[in-house]
Amino acid sequence: MFQSFLWAFIVGGLICVIGQIMFDVFKLTPGHTLSALVVAGAILDGLGLYEPLIAFAGAGASIPITSFGNSLVHGALIEADKHGIIGVLTGMFEVTSSGISAAIIFGFIGALLFKPKG
């Protein structure tokens, strides 16, 4: 069990280090860094490498933003096999809709409960 936690910490930490290097060294904006990490996760899933990484590192690979890209491509590929080209679009929405809905709902609740400074 300790080894699972260790690998999750190492892999998740490496993903965060990559994001920090993109900020500090390459001077990318948060939007560019976020987009690059999502695309990297999508590419890794398209190559069949992200699911084994999740199996190996658990939350260390499934929590960072790279997992969102993985989810988009994974859903699209599964639904494309079932429904063809229309499945590419529906698969992306089917897999990610609960997370996006939760972010919108919690963001709205936060906006109601807290007053912004300034």
TrEMBL record:
- Record's superkingdom? Bacteria
* Pfam family name, one: SpoVAC_SpoVAEB
Spans traversing the lipid bilayer:
6-26, 38-65, 85-114
Instruction: Please provide the record's keywords in A-Z order.
Output: Membrane, Transmembrane, Transmembrane helix
The record's annotation in InterPro entries points to: Spore_V_AE, SpoVA
Q: Would you tell me the protein name for this molecule?
A: Stage V sporulation protein AE
**Originating organism:** Fredinandcohnia quinoae
